[in-house]
Amino acid sequence: MAFPGFMNIAALTLCIFVLANCNHQVQASSRAFSGKESKISPGNGLCASWVTIHGYKCQELEVTTKDGYILSIQRIPEGRSEVKNNVTKKKEPVIVQHGVAVDGATWFLNSPKQNLPMILADNGFDVWVTNTRGTKYSRKHTSLDPSNKKYWDWSWDELVTDEMPAIFDFVSKQTGEQKINYIGHSLGTLVALVSLSEGKWVNQVKSVALLSPIAYLSKVKTVLGQVGARSLLGEKKFSKILTKYIINVFFNCPILGENCCLTSSAFQQFLKVAPQSSSTRNLFHLAQTVRSGVLAKFDFERLGSNMVHYGKLTPPIYNLSNIPKNVPIFISYGGRDALSDVADVKRLLNEHFRNHDTGKLSVQFIDNYAHLDYVMAANANEIVYKNVTSFFQRQW
Ligand SMILES: *[C@@H]1O[C@H](CO)[C@@H](O)[C@H](O)[C@H]1NC(C)=O
Ligand SMILES: *[C@@H]1O[C@H](CO)[C@@H](O)[C@H](O)[C@H]1NC(C)=O
Ligand SMILES: *[C@@H]1O[C@H](CO)[C@@H](O)[C@H](O)[C@H]1NC(C)=O
């Protein structure tokens, strides 16, 4: 079935409001969009639940950010055959960063031959799987409890300023200051693009792969614009609708971008691990991006607050043209993706990657891929992950 470019309002409304009711775990409160409840006991962390059962080594580690979040991170230091043959050699590290409303477990829903972290490990990489603050395995903080409103006072700005730098520093330290490869999906791509444009990572990063890149979200705006008089909706209402939209994209709402190649077993597993919690402010911030079409820091929407945080009335703009031209970047986007829309990705490429160094940019378009295919399509290994590993290896 061809993906319809135009969304019928009745069908869309049905999709947003009916499907949203299917996943009753989704609740937006004033502080957090809460997903799966977190019940972890020793011995059933991500490594034990998803990785070591397949014969891979896996270490549970913790990274503390400048703003006090204690993140769980899993390291798969080598491939399965190396465990058997007891080979050790120096490996290039790669960070694998998930998107919004999911966590690191989402990468592991398919078999070892099909999932990205294990494929990377089998191809000679030292793999580091991250879990964003607030998700199931990353609920600790040096002083705040998740029941405290303050715990949720962050948006993707803080992922750029505090979270990713802490992760890069940690991985760098643990690997003898080797340069680091990075793979992001969805929000993990926005964080990468903004980090690079802000001059971060530059001395630490080797290559970057962006799967389903999101920066401009004009398609989302067009679609949500039909839901109601957009300009009349308050920010809260709008961000609630956006949340449902995002969840529906993840949950395979057909008219919002039918995923091409998900197996039903992987999808059944997906329902067990998603959605994951995030902060309301994070979703507000995404909603602001959708509405304004401009990438900027979080807008506190009270003049005084912006003044206190930024020393000016409006939030500073992020300029993606400042991404260094010599960073090797692999981008893959799908023709049926309702978040990372084709026109939006083209705008990103045209506006900010025209002058990227030749040979340092590789762009892949996959006609029948939607958002979730990049994480768990049965054929993602053949179609995407092989290209990612060979792109990384070409930079050696
Ligand atoms: C693996 O190799 C190391 C040294 O290369 C050795 O010390 C260790 O005992 C070996 N482990 C196994 C299980 O063979
Ligand atoms: C963004 O940066 C580029 C070059 O780094 C500059 O030419 C352009 O004017 C900037 N855009 C804005 C909106 O500041
Ligand atoms: C991806 O891999 C296929 C087959 O290996 C190759 O034909 C294609 O050019 C690659 N595309 C990119 C963008 O690397």
UniProtKB/TrEMBL annotation:
Sequence ranges assigned to domain Partial AB-hydrolase lipase in this UniProt record: 51-110
Pfam family, one: Abhydro_lipase
The protein's name: Lipase
Keywords tagged on the record: Hydrolase, Lipid degradation, Lipid metabolism, Signal
Superkingdom, taxonomy of origin: Eukaryota
Active site: 186 (nucleophile), 337 (charge relay system), 371 (charge relay system)
SUPFAM superfamilies: alpha/beta-Hydrolases
InterPro entries (UniProt xref): AB_hydrolase_fold (IPR029058), AB_hydrolase_lipase (IPR006693), Lipase_euk (IPR025483)
Biological process, per Gene Ontology: lipid catabolic process; lipid metabolic process
